Every structure is written in structure tokens, then in C-alpha cells.
Amino acid sequence: MQIEICLPSLGDDDDAVAGGVVSEWLVKEGPVASGDDLLEITTDKAAFVLPAPRTGALVEKRVQPGDAVKVGDVLCIFEVKDPGEA
User: Cα–Cα–Cα angle for 56, 59, 62, nearest 5°?
Assistant: First the structure.
């Protein structure tokens, strides 16, 4: 099953960031373990690394370094065997 990985809210409610710029992808398309760093997002306040939420495979990158992204934007498509797996 394919799932979309979206940019989550960055920071807590009082200090939330609406988005940022993709700095770099830290993995290539292919197998990825849960917790592996996927990509880095830079905001006006800090740089954030987004980890893989599950073990699976990165099948499609929807953004590239230099792209501006907002919370909720689809970053990539991920293939997982069991959609209920944490």
C-alpha cells in the first residue's frame, strides 16, 4: 500500500512554523527503515530532519532541494506492506 508522507507541524503550538525549504534528501529512493532520516527542512528558525515513520520503501520524491513547502504538503510517496504497522 502506498501512503503520502506530508510535512508535519514544526514546533509546538506557540512556536509553530508554517513551512520551510527543502535543504536536501538524506536517502535515495528504495528501502528505508523506520526512523531513518528522510530529508532536511530549513525554516527561518532552525533546520529539521524528518524521519521515516515506518519501514518501507521511498518510491517517489515529490519535492526537490530548494522547494518551498508548507505544513501538509506531500513530500514523498512511501510503500508499506502493512498499513497498520507503527
Answer: 125
